[in-house]
Amino acid sequence: MQELKVSNDTSAFEVPVVLDEKGKLTDHCVRQALTMMDTHGLVVLTKLLSDEEAELGLALIRETIEDPDRSRSAFASETDNAYLRRDFCSLPSTPPVTGFAAMLCQRLEGVYSEYCGRSRPVLEIATFTSYRGSSHQYIHRDPAGVISLFAAVEDVSDQQGGTVFVPGTHLYGGSDNNHGGMARELTELFRTRCNYRIFRHNLKKLWRMRKGEEPALAPGEFWDRVFSTKWDQHQPNLLRFLLGKNSQFSLRTLGPRTVWKLYRHREAMDKLFRMVQMAPRKGTVILYRSDLLHAGPDNRSPQPRRIFGMSIARDMIEAKYWHDGYSPHPTLAANPMCLADLLDCAALPDAPNVTHRRLSA
Ligand SMILES: [Fe+2]
Questions:
Q1: Alpha carbon of 288 to ligand 1 centroid (Å)
Q2: Which of 70, 99, 221, 316 could be a cystine partner for 89, CB 3.0 to 4.6 Å?
Q3: Global pTM value
């Protein structure tokens, strides 16, 4: 992935977690986290979960992905899902899953309460697994007005494809005025440049797989990922690229005027933006504003990459728009939950021990 120039240095976005006597982030940590979220659009909270808590999250994920009747998510790459290159599925609202989500919300209450009112809906509790051979997602924004969380329930290496972010590209009132009033244009140009490189990377990889490189392609998979007429915004589909049918990246976004601007502003883009890939250690939690540019890379290792995810709305959100980007489990859709439900339900497990361990660490 050398041609994408991805940085693996996440130190500028990290806050080492310290919990108070109630098992919540200390005020100092909350202030640091909010500054990161406002400045960069994300924060990386290291060691928010103990090893035992992360293992509990991993067990909940395993239980769901081993269930043949699991509820698969309808976004990201459906083709990758169909060929088991990815397995994105929502988690049921069982007491252990809700308790795990509640523990995260309660520990992070100081941050959540700055952005999300107590009545705002929990849009999704899910798990995102990527296997070798998946496509690198295009750089995109999720539906706006949401705070999303990723929790690393085991160590994730950069080869396993920890999420890539473009810090500082989140949207807010007046953000277009940045960079001499060219923030939006330069950001979109940068996104186009990255997505062109991702398109080439995905095509080259598929071609190598077709020529016999591991992992082997399934029957029909090459055709479905490169020439299919089916909707999928994260495959290097040549047909949909040429027809302008991919809203993330297509010939429509790569006209002669854009190519000229990509050349003209290349140095400004290099100076202003960079792609940063997360390789979170077990127990690390990432919070990000949903409109921050990001992508789920391809897994380039034989080890599956598993992540726990949760999204909570910051504002009212129209149902169809919600379902474009988030897939609530049928049990969550039948019995909706809001932030207050998670803040007020069963207390943090083991709070006194956890607190003692953190403050004495
Ligand atoms: Fe996304």
A1: 11
A2: 70
A3: 0.93
